[in-house]
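Let's study a protein:

===
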Amino acid sequence: MKKLYTIMILVLATVFVAKAQTSDSPWAVSLGLNLVGVQDDSVDASTGFGIPALGFSRYIAGGFSIGAQYSLNSLEINNSDADYSALEGFLKYNISENDIYPYLFAGYGLSNFQTDTNAEGQFPSTGAGRTYFGGAGISFSISDNWNVNASTSYRSSSEKGSYNHLQHVVGFSYVFGAGDTDKDGVSDKKDVCPEVPGLKEFEGCPDTDGDGIPDNKDSCPEEAGSAELNGCPDADGDGIADKDDACPEAAGSAEMNGCPDSDGDGVADNLDKCPKEAGEAANDGCPEDDRDGDGIPDKDDVCPDEAGDAANSGCPELPEKLIDFMKGENSTLLFVVNSSTVTDESSAKLKILTELLGTYTKVNVVIEGHASSDGSMAYNQTLSEKRANSVKEALVAMGVDASRLEAIGYGETRPVEDNSTAEGRTANRRVQLDRRVKLKVVE
């Protein structure tokens, strides 16, 4: 007896996973060793250790199973050898369906303590008796189908030739009968993917791309990826799955849908027509047009063809002193009849103009020469040109760069006074530097 208990403890200590006989695997066949001990003080009996204890059962519902067991053993009763056999039906109740589960059972059958070797049959009337029994057991599993079981039961059999006795059984059982549509070894009831062959570790689901994430939980089941991205790959390592990444080969940011923004202008490179130059989203990521190169976009530049500054809306600095100088008489240089010589009075004005041009170095001056109607038109045209050139030469002599000066003659075509009077003709013999003088910015 002590030896049997030791064996039972060792078997139970080596089992770590269990699988119950349930509706998922309703059928079970068991085979084990049985130990029988007579419980009758009126007889002298030894404890018998025998083989087999063969059982067959079917799960019904709610934890209940029905089945039958056949046992053989041998022991000594009153110094005579006795062959023990038992055949019974039972009702079993699984207390739980956890990995390691206990159970209760009860039943009815026949037990035979045959001491007469001449008796005929498996259960002769001289040694067999009707038997009622009840007991408890525990089951463990060593695989999806194989269990290790241990049970003990008390059996009441008080008819003539039979005895009340204890029976202990240790053995294995094989559970089977579960439906498995996809034939992957995982029953349909436990198979999350019952129509597709899969793996036991993934509850019957496949892992097509072999990334350790089952297809039913893998957003990219045919491309190996990481668990952090639900099984999807990330070729550029930016933390955005390739399927959601507008630039899967270039690391970017979530704000840019996985694309980089090389110039930092807030427009992703894949949408930026000028990815190396910061620009405006409204201009496809490119800088605004700036024809004069003053840093002020043409759309905001009041003077898009003249370099200026932002304080002046893109226009050059206004030559206010020069404009003030040209107002009134300072803008007109008068000449004597038939002469292109610059007078002393005009030279004084040109000296002041020279100083102002030194201040406003980006201003060019157009010098307009005119004549009265005395003489022929051709003569007056030539005379007006000479007058404009003489003013230009005087300014150059005073230090003004010739490239900043342009001389034009208009002859008698643009009078300011009536040429029919002496006073009018005098006024028309001039070089005009008034508000009609063209000023333009140069680089």
Notes: The longest strand covers residues 47-61. The radius of gyration is 58 Å.
